# Entry
Amino acid sequence: MNVKIVGLYAGLFVGKNGASHQSLEDIAIMRAIANMTVVQPVDAVETRSLLHYAARYDGPMYIRIGRRSGATVRAGRLPVPTRRSVTLRSGNDLTLISYGDLMENTLAVAENLARKGIQARVINMSSLKPLDQAAVVAAARETGRIVTVDNHNIYGGLGSAVAEVLAEQAPPGSGASESETFLARPARTSR
# Structure
């Protein structure tokens, strides 16, 4: 069905609303539905463009929007359609893959690592399903390490999606620089 679902204040960071309002399984649930597109835009510019795209898109789509969507991470660049990621920072020592309202923090971490001599590639993976598999495999082959920064439960979120791609397309010993995948885990909640 050509249905669009918008989830607001998604993830762990819901402000004063607390644990009863956290949606930490929504990506996993929506990724499991056949033909469902799952996206979380990185900033207001991408949100606006994605909503216009969703109105024209023929098929089901889940648009996840976090509480802190006011920052402009991409400085006005037009977003690419779903299914594609955007490299926001170059680096060859490791890759940080994130999306949505955690991207600002992810870029800050990359800058902090750069001050210590570690060059981190940062990929904005706004399309969580379908995932830009080519970008994940290239990152594994070119940097050897991937860290996912996920505003979701560790089961079924971005970390799981990246691990699925690596297990199928770039397993250790396949020339993927003996890739290591580390999944960033959200803080425990009272749920």
